[in-house]
Design a protein that fits this description.
Elements: E1 6-11, H1 22-29, E2 33-36, E3 53-56, H2 68-80, E4 84-89, H3 99-108, E5 113-116, H4 121-128, E6 142-146, H5 160-166, E7 169-173, H6 179-188, E8 196-201, E9 209-214, H7 218-225, E10 231-235, H8 242-245, E11 257-260, H9 264-276, E12 280-283, E13 287-290, H10 296-303, E14 310-313, H11 316-328, E15 340-343, H12 346-354, H13 368-374, E16 382-388, H14 394-401, E17 405-416, H15 422-426, E18 433-436, H16 439-448, H17 453-459, E19 464-467, H18 470-478, E20 485-486, H19 492-502
């Protein structure tokens, strides 16, 4: 705990977690208390320390479970206790975020604070819909207007007569409930009914929806589309550019929700690639990586590492496990300067190369059988296989058939991971694609679903099932799971490419 408390009023951005600022992320990484709003992406909370207290203020347009006065008092209280407090707010804290009120309360209480601006939805959401709020050929002015205020009330703070025709682009935040009245006021005060309009829901997120029209028909179009808050409304000629400039919702996996079953430390690479292609990854790790229950066999093998002719790695996990154990024993991978080194595929080879280890052999097809087939003459040679505890026997058997002297040692274990209510995640059409990157991910997901083939088929019906390779696919099929996609190249990129080709 810090000796003197401070509050950071941080803009979280409009929804896409990648749009938080570098400084905002740094504040989260040192936070001891985070007070967040409803529209903050939960993935940002993965960056806070494990001991951090997270308080959900949970404000919605119709419901404020924590009144603003209590939020102000909460920030003051935690800061006075010497805490580093982050008030995490959607968009920018000073644009309709009541950040000014919170800063006033902190100033009056003598609490140190800093403002960390955020990317506002007023600009980012139209941009993700392919709409620039200004354009040299169309308009040089834009205004951001609250959509909460009822345009029909007496004593409005909005000068509709000037706003309607005096500004090129109008951006209304959180105004979907008042949309008919907003449209009526703009037309009443001189805006052309044929002015283009776009209403964008869940902007910058994979579930983004955009409805376009004109002032004359946008309210009806939004109603027919069933659009609900949160949404941003853009009024102006710039909306016409959407057909030419839209980019976010045209990506090949846009809007698809993909279940990622890899172990959590490894899930990020697959999730990131899926996100880049427009999908929303839902991480549900079915396996966890754990150290061996007994180090003795691995330690003995590493102690005589220089006596082996080959060391063969069948996963990046194996590389990491060996590296960490060598460090614990006071040694390092320079001992691999003697034996030849083989890797099952490019990801494993990259892990080795990242440690400065030259890789002598990678098979053209990334399965264990191909290592044994393509490694050459190993008759009488000593081979070390540092592997998972549940590794397939095919590689060791193939090498022994060729006359090699094979030592298999457990470098790490794979265990079932508990990640929450899988039935709830899969239910109601919430998942479009299920990915499996190993036989263990298949088996553990099957166990989580009850394990019976009929139940597995029902639970995954309507979803595209994609496997990283034939071994994983075979395991799925043996358990009664229909497999739709098998990657030609048995890598994460190969899996993603196969999914793109299939949808």
């Amino acid at each position: 705990m810090s000796s003197k408390g401070i509050v950071y009023l941080v803009g979280a951005g409009p929804g896409d977690p990648g749009l938080i600022t570098v400084k905002g992320l740094a504040c989260l990484e040192k936070a001891e208390v985070v007070v967040c709003d409803r529209l903050v992406n939960e993935r940002l909370l993965e960056h806070v320390p494990s001991h951090c207290e997270i308080i959900d203020a949970g404000k919605t347009p119709q419901k404020h479970p924590v009144p603003q006065g209590e939020i102000n008092a909460l920030l003051v209280d935690r800061a006075r206790a010497g805490k580093v407090v982050v008030r995490l707010k959607g968009g920018d804290p000073f644009l309709f975020g009541r950040g000014g009120e919170e800063a006033e309360a902190l100033a009056e209480a003598g609490i140190s604070f800093e403002i960390v601006p955020g990317v506002t939805s007023a600009i980012a959401v139209p941009a993700y819909a392919g709409i620039p709020v200004t354009h040299r050929d169309l308009t040089s002015t834009f205004a951001v207007v609250t959509g909460h205020e009822d345009p029909t009330k007496d004593g409005s703070d909005i000068d509709w007569a000037k706003l309607a025709t005096g500004v090129g682009t109008l951006v209304f935040l959180m105004g979907i409930g008042n949309l008919p009245a907003i449209v009526a006021r703009l037309v009443e005060h001189g805006r052309d009914p044929q002015t283009p309009v776009a209403v964008i829901r869940w902007g910058t997120e994979p579930r983004q929806e955009t409805v376009t029209g004109t002032l004359a028909d946008i309210a009806q179009r939004v109603r027919e589309a069933g659009l609900q808050p949160p949404a941003v409304t853009v009024v102006g000629e710039v909306v016409r550019l959407r057909n030419k400039l839209r980019w976010f919702d045209t990506r090949p996996l846009f809007g698809k929700r993909v279940l990622v079953t890899r172990a959590r430390p490894q899930a990020s690479a697959l999730s990131q690639r899926l996100q880049e292609l427009g999908a929303e990854p839902v991480e549900f790790p079915t396996i966890a990586i754990a150290p061996p229950s007994d180090w003795s066999n691995l330690d003995q093998a590493l102690d005589k590492l220089a006596t082996y002719d080959w060391v063969i790695f069948t996963s990046a996990n194996g590389v990491e496990a060996v590296v960490e154990r060598l460090r614990a024993l006071g040694s390092d991978l320079r001992l691999l300067g003697g034996p030849h080194v083989a890797a099952i595929g490019p990801a494993t080879a990259q892990a080795l190369q990242g440690q400065g280890v030259r890789v002598d052999f990678v098979p053209s097809v990334y399965v264990a059988e191909e290592i044994a087939a393509g490694i050459g003459d190993v008759r009488g040679q000593r081979v070390l296989l540092p592997r998972a505890d549940k590794a397939r026997p095919a590689l060791a058997q193939g090498l022994r058939q060729k006359g090699a002297l094979v030592d298999e040692v457990v470098a790490y274990r794979t265990t079932a991971a508990s990640s929450g209510d899988l039935q709830a995640i899969l239910g109601n059409g919430k998942i479009d694609i299920v990915t499996f990157t190993s036989s263990s991910t298949v088996k553990n997901l099957a166990t989580a679903l009850g394990g019976r083939p009929q139940e597995l088929g029902q639970a995954l019906s309507g979803m595209l099932v994609a496997c990283i390779g034939p071994v994983t696919a075979s395991t799925a099929q043996e358990l009664g799971i229909r497999v739709d996609v098998v990657a030609r190249e048995h890598t994460i990129q190969g899996l993603v490419d196969a999914i793109v080709a299939a949808v």
